[in-house]
Design brief:
7-stranded antiparallel sheet; 3 helices; 154 residues; alpha+beta
């Protein structure tokens, strides 16, 4: 299992950064290789992405969500992956976004890529593109402010 943790400071209020992150269907606009994310209900997502030169699809479940604080997920199909993104207020106009992710690479190409640091670079690039995206807009494209409690039956 490969693990990565990275953070970036964005010049928007914590609620703006959090609200934008809850707009999962906008992820292809700033996440490398992500072709689409379809939100099927409040806690379930279907992903399509290009990883290691191959198209992959998987489903994920939001396992915990607290407005302006955190969103956690885990894959329910496809390659094993899970993670959490947290939002930390630095000041009224600055938020630190921290992404922690664990992924189980599949096959030789993904394992070699992970060993060479491709996952780390992809996460860093995705956070940098998120910063450009949200700072360039200045406001979120939408918001979902619901709560998902860890361990709740879904």
């Amino acid at each position: 299992m490969a693990s990565v943790v990275d953070s970036i400071d964005v010049k928007v209020p914590v609620s703006t950064a959090y609200n934008q992150w809850t707009q999962f269907e906008s992820f292809p606009q700033f996440m490398e290789g992500v072709k689409s994310v379809a939100q099927t209900d409040d806690t379930h997502l279907h992903w399509v992405a290009e990883i290691g030169g191959a198209e992959k699809e998987w489903d994920a479940e939001i396992t915990e969500q607290h407005p302006d604080e955190r969103v956690a997920w885990r894959a329910t199909s496809g390659a094993e992956n899970a993670g959490v993104v947290t939002f930390h207020r630095i000041d009224d106009e600055t938020t630190r976004v921290t992404l922690q992710m664990d992924a189980d690479p599949e096959g030789l190409v993904e394992n070699v890529g992970t060993a060479l640091g491709f996952l780390d670079r992809r996460v860093k690039g995705d956070l940098e593109r998120f910063k450009e995206f949200i700072e360039g807009r200045g406001s979120e494209t939408g918001a979902w402010r619901g709560e998902v409690e860890a361990g709740a039956q879904r």
